[in-house]
Amino acid sequence: MKYRKKPVEIEAVQFADDPDTLIKINDGLGLDPVNVSYEDPDNPVLKIPTLEGVMTAQVGDYIIKGVHGEFYPCKPDIFEETYEPVEK
Description:
The chain has two helices and six strands; from the N terminus they run βαβββββα. By secondary structure, it is an alpha+beta fold. It has a three-stranded antiparallel beta sheet with strand order 1-5-6. A three-stranded antiparallel beta sheet has the order 2-3-4, with no helix packed on it. The mean pLDDT is about 95.
């Protein structure tokens, strides 16, 4: 049997280590707290609590808020293959 993924609208913000993006992730998506790790100062990562444990997003990854309010990171190439902008 074959199956097709149902169309689902999600909210997402592409992670960048700048104040405007971090505000969008916090206020726009609702990820609170926004926890950026600077353990490697040249490669900041966003730590995201998920049902599977803490996942990390690198600069350029998309932070997705799922239909049930869950958050998870997605690599840009996978995001662009899977999602398209929704016209309102």
